Amino acid sequence: MEQVTFKDIKKSKEVNAYIYKGNSTLGVLGYTDKVSSMAGKILECLGYSGHTVELAKIAGYMHDIGNCVNRLDHPHSGALMAHQILRDMKMDYEDIAVIINAIGMHDEKSGGAVDTVLAALILADKTDVRRDRVRNQNKAAFDKHDRVNYAVVSSSLDIQKEKKVIKLDLQLDENICSMMDYFEIFLQ
Q1: Are 125 and 63 within 8 A, CB to CB?
Q2: Contacts of 40 (CB under 8 A, 6+ apart)
Q3: Residue 46 near residue 33 (C-beta atoms within 8 A)
Q4: Which among 1-10, 107-116, 133-142 has the top mean pLDDT?
Q5: How big is the chain by its Cα radius of gyration, in Å?
């Protein structure tokens, strides 16, 4: 088995092809780098090992890879795709298990935070809300997700390890949507 790094995953033509296809199919801008970076930052700030941070970054980068198959059930198809890719890269089996578990369970409809990497991925994914994610510029045609993302004026995550607090600060243009719209969509 080999030590597969986040850098290896980011350079993978196969991984990037699937991410690109998923983004183009859904007509949304994917920001896998931002989710990856945030998942790593969360665990780094909380004092987890470099290896655990690396696994969270990989899971964050690959978490929506299943969108190239279909948005419906994308966590499960993505986990299966990631399994094959990581196995082909000769990643350690225990590390593969952590990553595919995080990918397969990151959606609130079918999963839940059962370990550190998955918890960091869920937090990073749910806090990745901002105006520049919206490709559709026709506000009249916005769906709920477009409206919430477009309404975000600013967002930041504040991690206070000593207080055991992770706080999301959002500023929304409430002429576009309310804070309750955000909670309804992203925190089911």
Answers
A1: yes
A2: 6, 53, 54, 56, 57, 60, 120
A3: no
A4: 1-10
A5: 16
> Which long-range contacts does 93-102 make (Cβ < 8 Å, 24+ apart)?
93/1, 95/4, 95/55, 98/55, 98/59, 99/55, 99/58, 99/59, 99/62, 102/55, 102/56, 102/59, 102/63
Q: Which of 188, 149, 153 is nearest to 169 (CA)?
A: 153
Mean pLDDT for the stretch of residues 112-124:
91
What pTM value is reported for the model?
Answer: 0.87
3-state secondary structure of 158: strand
Q: What is the pLDDT of residues 58-97, one digit of tens each?
A: 999 999 999 889 888 899 999 999 999 999 999 999 999 9
Residue identified by tokens 């600060």 is: 169
Residue with token string 């795709």? 81
The one-letter amino acid code at 175 reads N
Rounded CA-CA distance 28/132 in Å is 10
